[in-house]
Amino acid sequence: MRMPQRMVTGLSAIALIGGVSAVATAPAEAATATVRCQFPSGTTGTSGTNAHGLPEWYGGTPFTKPSTSLTTCQDLNLWKGQAGVSYEGWLYYGNGNWGACQAGYVRYSGSGSIVLCTNVLPGTTMGVTSSAGSGQNIQIED
Description:
This protein has about 140 residues and is of the alpha+beta class. Helix content is about 20%, strand content about 35%. The strands form three sheets. Strands 4, 6, 7, 8 and 10 form a five-stranded antiparallel beta sheet that branches. A four-stranded antiparallel beta sheet has the order 1-11-5-9, with no helix packed on it. A two-stranded antiparallel ribbon has the order 2-3. Keywords: Signal.
């Protein structure tokens, strides 16, 4: 069965318009390749000393900084936690070596975010401790 010329032309125009819009949006998508801040949830852990006498973090949810240089978040921030509780960020340096971030314990007011560690390198494993103990539900921004 033969389709009327007008219908074939209309379908060709729709296909052409669809193709042009896909081409037109491709550069915009490529321009937005920057990884936005991530908001993973987890729990706080505990700090202590390992068998070699070095500080360590354990027992909570380990988070990993997105491994791209295009990420918009360079810090480890606490996004959600318990109001009035203080939190401390920890970074893993390899070979069983953990270190508490320079900010130390920072009190969370219950809104907004607080910076626990600054200039965290992509791919770094991170953890959070709490003055209220381990197992506290948190959400970070990294």
